[in-house]
Write a structure and sequence with these properties.
This protein is globular. The chain is mainly beta and about 280 residues long. β13 and β14 form a beta hairpin.
């Protein structure tokens, strides 16, 4: 079930302990103009899991974005909470809370994920610094036994966490993309940095089951490197308009499959011109 909550965010946030502070100039290598969302946006998803060939509702996920200050700089604060439903709680408690701060040009500043799964609770944190022209990470992980692990990571290329990459990807322009177009990036958590890919699969019409609405969508896949090969983890459908709202996610898990569907949205920045009105 952990993969459900990890991938929601691939689509679809303390004070820093490192030396040097946040160098806005050096972080310019990691910026992108935000064209997709605005402060106040709120998204809600229903999560479903395939249990013995039957699709059952596993819970919901809520994501909100607000404008704030981080270490004296203007920033976006994005907050994602996932919750299993009451029936699922009888078998397995799932509570994930993700928090990230990014600059107004979506450069990553800080990431935290707290995950409660059954009796197990873990914490991932990533602290960003862009001094000396590099992307410097302080990574902190607390395992299920309460043990702390710390790592330093330095790269000449920008590194993202799952939340900041989600926010960044929504401002990508698909103009000129052909099927198979690939974006390579490194993604960090509190304990590791992995090679990942976003692959463009083309355009499709997606029909919302509950409302019968139809949308023109871009279809993309998220792949993660395991050993020497890349494996597709999630395929997602985003509105083919300036919002790039993730409408649906199909998740490929080691022990089954799962889906997530956007059910509510508020304070969306642009008109949903991808909706088919005919």
């Amino acid at each position: 079930m952990k993969r459900i909550y990890l991938c929601i965010i691939i689509l679809i946030m303390s004070s820093l302990s490192h030396i040097g502070g946040f160098d806005v100039t050096a972080s310019a290598q990691c910026t992108i103009e935000n064209k997709a969302f605005m402060a106040g946006e709120s998204l809600t998803y229903d999560l479903y899991y395939n249990w013995k060939f039957i699709w059952v509702k596993a819970g919901i996920a809520d994501m909100t974005t607000t404008k704030t200050k981080y270490k004296g700089h203007d920033a976006y604060r994005s907050h994602l909470i996932t919750r299993g439903n009451n029936k699922l709680d009888d078998y397995f408690v799932l509570r994930d809370t993700l928090l990230c701060y990014t600059g107004l040009e979506i450069q990553p500043m800080y990431f935290r994920k707290g995950a409660r799964e059954g009796k197990r609770y873990t914490v991932d944190e990533v602290f960003y610094d862009f001094s000396n022209g590099k992307c410097n990470l302080k990574q902190h992980y607390i395992n299920k036994h309460g043990e702390h692990r710390y790592h330093d990571y330095h790269d000449s290329e920008c590194v993202f966490d799952m939340m900041s990459m989600l926010m960044r990807a929504r401002s990508f322009s698909p103009d000129g993309w052909k099927k198979g177009h690939t974006i390579n990036f490194n993604m960090a958590d509190g304990d590791d940095v992995k090679e990942c890919k976003l692959v463009y699969r083309g355009r499709e019409v997606y029909k919302v089951k509950e409302t019968k609405e139809r949308f023109n969508c871009l279809v993309l896949s998220f792949l993660e490197k395991e050993d020497t090969k890349f494996k597709e983890i999630v395929r997602f459908y985003v509105t083919d308009d300036d919002n790039h709202l993730p409408l649906r996610l199909d998740l490929y898990l080691r022990f089954g499959s799962a889906k997530a569907f956007l059910t509510k949205y508020k304070n969306v920045r642009h008109p949903l011109t991808s909706r088919i009105t005919e």
